[in-house]
Write a structure and sequence with these properties.
This protein is α+β, with helices and mostly antiparallel strands. It contains 4 helices and 5 strands. The radius of gyration is 23 Å and the shape is elongated.
Length: 158
């Protein structure tokens, strides 16, 4: 039989977790978009247009997908960031040939570690303007559920 102290702790924990979930899940997602795109898509190389079509056919990413054009090592290059921030993006030359995967340490392939420091003339040529699906708060729900289980476990161990 549980003591009244344990039952009270469980009730308080459940209330805190429920309130946190409602507050966190109802908060609007902030928009994270790169600056405005001022490039006519029809003027982009064919391979960039194909990459745009490929990215547009995938589920909406957060942060949103984009393609940027730079001047780097005396040539025009295109950077496509990775879907996940902990991975490295991909850098292509003007013809669509893979140059490298910029990043530091394990995230990159060490062929262009200076890209982020040396790139110039940034221009965003495409960005995904689609909205995230409503109610996509699964990570928050999982976090709160795990936190609740941890508190309950600690409470029951005492």
């Amino acid at each position: 039989m549980m003591s009244s102290r344990t039952i009270a702790m469980l009730a308080v924990t459940a209330l805190v977790v429920t309130a946190s979930c409602f507050l966190g899940c109802s908060a609007p997602k902030q928009s994270v978009h790169p600056p405005e795109v001022r490039v006519n898509p029809a003027t982009l190389p064919e391979w960039v247009q194909a990459k745009v079509a490929e990215l547009s056919s995938q589920p909406v990413a957060y942060p949103p997908a984009y393609i940027a054009r730079y001047w780097y090592r005396n040539q025009t290059v295109y950077f496509v960031p990775a879907e996940y921030p902990e991975r490295s993006g991909t850098l292509f030359d003007a013809e669509g040939v893979l140059l490298c995967r910029p990043g530091i340490g394990r995230n990159g392939d060490q062929r262009c570690e200076d890209f982020f420091a040396e790139r110039q003339e940034e221009e965003f040529v495409w960005r995904d303007d689609r909205e995230l699906p409503k109610g996509s708060n699964a990570p928050e729900l999982i976090f709160f559920a795990l936190a609740a289980l941890q508190v309950i476990h600690i409470t029951l161990m005492n």
